[in-house]
Amino acid sequence: MTASPSPGVRLDIRGLSKRYGEREVLRNTQLAIEPGQFIAIVGRSGCGKSTLLRLVAGLEPATEGALFTDGQAVDGLHDDTRIMFQEARLLPWRRVLDNVALGLPEADRARGREVLAQVGLAERSGEWPARLSGGQRQRVALARALVHQPRLLLLDEPLGALDALTRIEMHRLIESLWLRHRFTALLVTHDVQEAVALADRVILIEDGRIALDEPIALARPRSQGDPAFAAIEKRILDRVLQKPAGTEPEEPPANDTRWTEGPAHALRWAV
Amino acid sequence: MNQQVQALPLATPSLGAARGFALGVARRLVPWLVPVGLVVAWQIASSLGWLSTRVLPAPVDVVKAAWRLTASGELWTHVRVSAARALTGLAIGGGLGLALGLLTGSVKVAETLLDSTLQMVRNIPALALIPLVILWFGIDESAKLFLIAVSVFFPIYLNTFHGIRNVDPQLIEMGRTYGLTRWQLYKEVILPGAMSSILVGLRFSLGLMWVILIVAETISAQSGIGYLTMNAREFLQTDVVLVGILLYALLGKLADLLARGLERWWLRWHPAYGGAK
After folding, report:
1. Of B152, B91, B88, B107, nearest to B126 (Cα)?
2. How far is residue A47's CA from residue A67's CA, in Å, rounded to a whole number?
3. Are A218 and A232 in contact (CB under 8 A)?
4. Of B171, B192, B267, the CB nearest to A89
5. Cβ neighbours around B135 below 10 Å, total
6. Residue A188 is part of which domain span?
7. How many domains is chain A built from?
8. Residues B8 and B91 in one domain
9. Cβ contact (<8 Å) for B171 and A91?
């Protein structure tokens, strides 16, 4: 670690709403995130958690509300923020190191090498992405995000397509890099266990609004075998599953269809 | 190939290796049996006088004619003229096709304005333009270049357009969030993403280029392979006509090899081309 760790941004989400035509995906969301905090956002699919992330990334404009980083209003893409997508989205025609150094000035390629070493792929720097496994590709994508020394890292279910063992490895890697660089992190996931393993705070979004905001006080590194871990995971999972299909009294009827199509979903994933 | 051979159940290793080698050689030779046999039969038929030299000269005579033309330097002159024509036409038509394809593929207004017009013009076969082209340009060099340029334009235009349109939008979104400038996005993401499609267009164009060149040179020319063959026809030199035909085939093959070389180099990241080495 040569450079001093860049402190994360303070993120303020004030009254953020997003509508696609008639459908309201996110309504009046309020959220304040301390610098360097690791936040996990969980929720069933279609609850609006990915939309929230895309709004924070500046990929889509909000219908209402505003976004502040360090007290400054932001609009559109900003340079302090990097996003890691569900798919690695590596350029297949660029070798691994060139992918990591994408958009960097030539002088900063050394930093690309350094970060590639931090994700454990230094010796694969000359490889084509097509030759890497899914987990390795996501590690390259993580390196590509970190090389810009982001102050806010957004993670949009980046581990969803990986197998269970690779996912646990990636949890450790992400946690260690976060502890090292101290950026603010916002992770969207449908895996409650992943959320509890990584986050300082787990936020549950239901029908476009925040339904639960739970601080996780467990010491790091966290072990999934720990009874306290299991208790928290169970509590959040129960809360996610608590709301049965389409019986929320305050729900406008238009939204009910989304929940009635699949009442008996797999448990752990809270899909 | 050797692996397949070794996979066969074999009696003893040493005998197996010898037999494997023999099989390998045989497998390489067998595809040549028929063409070589045909040439030999042709030579015999000509030597025995069953084939009139006005229909088909003996293979040996064709080789002799090729040698004579090469030695006099005539062959080289004509090949050079023809190749220059083909490549100039390709550069003009292909370059325009590439530029317009990039434009309509990337700029919505340009697509709305130009694409449907170009799609209409595309339906006119280039050869149907010959009478008009002769009226416009006469029968000199520019007429030939025009015909070649028109015919190579469309495959490159269409494939460039579709290549640009089919670039993975997720990669473009990634490029935007990673702070690439417009030009960097174009250079790093869009152009390489469209490259395999553009090269398919180039290979189509190369095939068309030779066909149109042959037609154009056969209509009228004072030099080039077409001139060589038409001239030879008037003097009933069937051997020279055959040399010309073989030259066209050779040049076509050469151009195709070149295009495949480009594919292998530019798409070397793609498992289907360079083997991702």
Report:
1. B152
2. 20
3. yes
4. B171
5. 9
6. 1-77+165-255
7. 2
8. no
9. yes
